[in-house]
Write a structure and sequence with these properties.
Layout lengths: L1 E3 L2 E3 L2 H13 L2 H8 L3 H15 L4 E2 L6 E2 L1 H30 L3 E6 L1 H15 L5 E6 L2 H9 L5 E4 L9 E10 L1 E5 L10 H4 L4 E2 L1 E2 L4 H12 L9 E2 L2 H9 L3 E5 L1 H6 L7 E5 L4 E2 L2 E2 L4 E9 L6 H25 L11
Parallel strand pairs: 5-6, 5-7, 10-13, 11-12
Antiparallel strand pairs: 1-2, 3-4, 7-17, 8-17, 9-13, 9-14, 15-16
Helix pairs in contact: 1-2, 1-3, 1-4, 2-3, 5-11
């Protein structure tokens, strides 16, 4: 029995024993699970009742059943023990983070363009980073199942409890065409599709879902032809003069091998009903479990924000022949 500020609190093992009794439904099964005798477990229950000055078991029934007080204790003790487990995991993970590998998952375009900057910045520090790439939905699942420690995705704040998401930056969607394609007047994307095939990202990708939403918003009804999960095959077809696509500066920069054969235009260069298309953006978030990894998430967040704005965004703007504010949007 512990005494804190004049209050008497039950020993930890007594609470563990009580949760086992209620969860298993009998003292004999609980004793077997805990590896102690039935008599020893009965003594623990009685010690717990004495500490709390409450009857926890109705011994007039066979088998004995928890009283209302016993049920309430079971509910509260279960929450307390779960919180204790989370506390232990959090402390252990924090300690591991100081000396072990940190697993960072990123969507493909981000990993290809920003990943080298992250790795270079952390060389020589106490952190070693393993960089994984994949789709946002997959990365969030890996973060929730603890296969990843951090993830950079296009999804906003996660629904899962304990997962925190911080906005890194955003970028506008643009239209990419073959460099050789000439047209006197730009109106709707549907009209453009009468000259070039529309090459899409698949709906498995968030970028594909957002583009589909944009088309619906502007009442664009474009025939489906080619669809891809990745940017490289999409850009190769555009560069070959086969079609056009909606994409983002970062995706183009990931596939900049094809840049000499591409023409990049802002979405506002197109119009419907006499009005330029509204800007559509893609945002990036750093997601991680709260109260873990110490200051690492904040440090990486700041590193990416500063490095992207001061270096990568400027290189992209120069290479794409566009103003910086057409390839990078401040958070």
């Amino acid at each position: 029995m512990k005494e804190i500020s004049g209050e008497q609190y039950p020993e930890w093992d007594l609470l563990v024993s009580w949760v086992a009794v209620v969860a298993s439904g009998s003292i004999s099964r609980a004793a077997s699970q805990l590896g102690i005798s039935q008599a020893g477990l009965s003594q623990r229950v009685m010690a717990l009742e004495s500490t709390l000055d409450a009857n926890l078991l109705d011994r007039t029934t066979r088998p004995a059943r928890p009283t209302d007080a016993g049920k309430r204790l079971y509910e509260q003790a279960t929450i307390l023990l779960q919180s204790a487990d989370q506390m232990v995991d959090s402390v252990r993970n924090l300690t591991r983070a100081k000396r072990n590998v940190v697993r960072l998952g990123c969507i493909d375009s981000f990993a290809a363009v920003v990943g080298p900057m992250i790795i270079k910045a952390l060389v020589g520090t106490s952190h070693q980073v393993r960089l994984w790439s994949g789709m946002s939905s997959v990365l969030h699942g890996q973060l929730e199942s603890r296969q990843l420690d951090l993830a950079v995705t296009n999804r906003g704040p996660a629904e899962s409890a304990g997962i925190h998401c911080q906005l890194l930056f955003s970028e506008p969607y643009v239209v990419v065409l073959p460099a050789s394609f000439q047209i006197d007047r730009l109106t709707t994307l549907t009209e453009l599709s009468s000259h070039l095939q529309f090459i899409r990202y698949s709906a498995r990708q968030i970028v594909g879902q957002e583009i589909e939403h944009c088309l619906q918003l502007h009442s664009e009804n474009i025939e489906r032809s080619c669809e891809f999960d990745a940017s490289d095959p999409l850009m190769s077809l555009v560069a070959a003069g086969i079609g056009f696509a909606l994409t983002t500066p970062l995706c183009i920069w990931q596939s900049r091998l094809y840049l000499p054969d591409l023409k990049v235009l802002p979405l506002s260069a197109f119009s419907g009903n006499g009005r330029p298309y509204a800007e559509m953006i893609r945002s990036f978030y750093m997601c991680f479990r709260e109260n873990e990894l110490g200051s690492l998430p904040r440090s990486l967040h700041d590193l990416i924000r500063v490095g992207y704005e001061s270096q990568i965004a400027k290189e992209m703007a120069h290479g794409l022949g566009m103003p910086v504010d057409q390839v990078y949007l401040h958070p």
